[in-house]
Here is the input.
Amino acid sequence: MSIMPEELIGGLFALADPSSRGTSPPFASDKAISFINARSAMAFALRELGCRRAWLPSYICGALADVAPEIRYYALDRQLRLADDFTKLEPGDAVIIVHHFGFRADPTIAVAARARGARIVEDAAQAAFLMRNDSDCIVYSPRKWVGVPDGGVLLWNDVRPVPALEPPPQTWWLNAFEASLRRRDFDRGSNDRAWFSRFQESEMISPQGDFRMSDIATALLARAFDWDAIRHRRCANYAALLDRLGDLALLPILGDVVPLGFPIRVGNRPALVERLHARNIFPPVHWPLPHVPTTFAQSHALSAELLTLPCDQRYDEDDMQRMADLLATVMA
Ligand SMILES: Cc1ncc(COP(=O)(O)O)c(C=O)c1O
Here is the structure.
């Protein structure tokens, strides 16, 4: 069913209906270790690998800024391709390879990193449908894809002992749970936008530590989502946007990718965002880069112009047309 013209597009996912039935996630495995979020999974993996120093791509969210005692950045260009020769990379360092927006990262990153004896950790927080590929481990963040309040999944390339993990910190978890619960009420017509401030609060104090995924998230993830339908809807929505907004697309060829969202490059983003908000469309900015040194000029240039249009399974092609129509009007 199509969303009515002025209904909200974007924002966090509503808590899933516990009675819905689906399939296991694409990243499901009996070897998966479930953490409270992806950053905790990654911090644990880096410790387990004995890496004190981790290299992050210059285009990356701030959430990973403390995953290792020492953080360095490697350069990506404006197309998210490797633009670094890794001369300062030392054997035993970790290189974190980020699959942006659902797309597999530039394969030359892994080749260059391996050649210098680095450990490789794949970050698939934005790529729930991508499988591990020639790395030490891969990390997922399910709540960016479906309606669960928390969760981070770690998959190793070899067998490792399962760590003793603590329960989620209660205050943080209740806040995150309330945000997704209130979003559910909102989607059902409550007209109360408190979910947004709850969500912002929980994002600001996201824990990083040896905490496990909540039981509620674990149970919902095991069976409440139809991942084939999710794949289909996201791909169809992306294709619809490509059709209308191909000139703006950062990633104009979808191939067999299941996208997180539809990143576009725009000039004068603040004015555009204001117009979109006025029409109840809330595209996230992935990401502001205050944590990345300004010498990574291409990433900062990209960060200033990027906007991610939502194209997830909550929406259909009519919703995509509504967004495309508005953009066409505003940018004319
Ligand atoms: C690419 C990427 N990696 C990792 C993370 C951290 O995920 P989480 O919030 O589950 O810790 C995020 C987002 O915050 C992200 O965008």
